[in-house]
Each structure stands twice: as C-alpha cells, then as structure tokens.
Design a protein that fits this description.
There is one protein chain. The protein is of the alpha+beta class. It has 2 domains: 95 residues; 106 residues, no CATH class. It is 43% helix and 12% strand. It is built from 4 helices and 7 strands, in the order H-E-E-E-H-E-E-E-E-H-H. The strands form 2 sheets. It has a 4-stranded antiparallel β-sheet with strand order 3-2-6-7, covered by helices on one side. Helix 1 runs antiparallel to helix 4. The protein is rod-shaped and about 160 Å long. The two termini are 78 Å apart.
Length: 267
Amino acid sequence: MGIGSIGSSTSFWQQDQSYWQNAQSNSNTIAATDSIINAISSAETSQAKGLASIANQTALNRTNSQLTADIENLLNGTTGSSSSGSSTSSPSSSGKSAAPATATGTASLSTSTPLSLLGVLAGGTITVGAGPNTTSYTSTGTDTVGDLMNAINANDYGNAAVTASLNTHGNLVITAKNDATSIFIGGLYASNVGFGVGNQTFTPTAGRSSSSSSTSNSSTASSTTSTSSSTAKTSKSYTTVASEMSSSAASLLSDSGVGGSLVDMLA
C-alpha cells in the first residue's frame, strides 16, 4: 500500500492538491480571458472614437462647405433664405445699354457724287439737328456728297454733335455722338440724299444714358456712396452670420477624437 493512499483510492491530500491545482489553472485561464476581453473592448472603444471623429470631421466639412456656398449665393443674389421661406433676388443687370440715335438714308451714294446730280441746286439746304445744335449746309452747285459729309463732321461751335459716313451699301449714315439726343434731318433737299418724309427723325435706343449720368454727377456720387454704405453693411451682416453659423457647426460637430462617440456618427 502506498503512502497517502488507502488501497487503490486517492488520498484526501492528493484530491485537495489536485483541486487547488485545477482552481489555479482555471483562475489563470479566466485572467487571460479577461485580459483579452479588456484589450478587445479597448480596441473597439478606440475604433468607435476614431470612426466618430472621422464622421464628425466629414459632417463638419460638409456643413461648412454648404454654409459657404449658401452665403456666396446669397451675396450674389442667386438664392434666398431657406429658413424664412422667402426668396431674395438682385435686380437684373443684363438690360441693353443705351445706343445713340442713328439715321440711315435710302439713297445710294459715294463721296464723289455731285449734289447737283442728285437734284440739289445751288443754294439748296440740308439741315441736321441733334439736341439743341444744328448744322445747316448750303450747296454751292459744284460740291459733292463728300463736301456735305465734311460739313456735318466739322466740330465748329454750334454744329450738331453727330458724325457722317457711308455704309457698305453707299447709304449716308449720321450718328449722334452721345446716346441721349435725337437726330432730325430736314431742309428742302433732305430727301435727295435719302432722308424723305417718314425717314427724318431718329431717337436713341432706350437704356442708361451716359449723358444724363454725366449731368447728374452729384446725385450719382451720393447714390454711389449710399449704395456702397448699404453694401458694406450687408456684407458685414452676412459675414457675421457666417461666422456664427460656422462656430455653431463646429461646436455641434466636434472634430475631436477624444470627445467622439458612436452617437456622433448620426450627424
């Protein structure tokens, strides 16, 4: 019979030793398992915070980009405020600019064509008026269309502020030098050079007049100053709103990985 045993049965001491050995082994296994679980939990937490940080930064970039685009559109007058439901648009600036009055004759001419050949007798007059000034040309009987054009183009004091030329069809074209005055062509022989009844009065194309702008410099300057001031105030207002909205977006969608959580990924 061996020591510590009775017959073939394991002794109580051996059973006790075996029990504590098994308990120690189980304890080590549990400790190792807990360590692995803690490591996995820590990794999952770090991953969640990292994903939340990425989601936060993406949402923040998207929000700031949208804010920037909306504010630029608002400043450009291409969109309105979505929060109020009202639309804001700027006045159209694509309207036609004013064009000067242009008179085009119906007769086919050349600069060398004698006025007498057109039926203009010596002493016959052709008058061109533009605004308060008038150019009155009297034929000598031996002059040409070129002489008439030179007289119309002369910058003599009191002459009509117009220019005379021939187009590709040989028609006499008289154009005002500014876009605010009308042209009137008359005289007994006006029809001989292509300006008969029904083709004697010509007005400028409607639009902003450079002449009227130049004659009202003081009011324009005042209006410009007022507009600039208003624009500055508006820009400042939009800039302030943009700053406040961006700050709010940054606070709501923090890009800090430490402060992130899975909930933030819903943003």
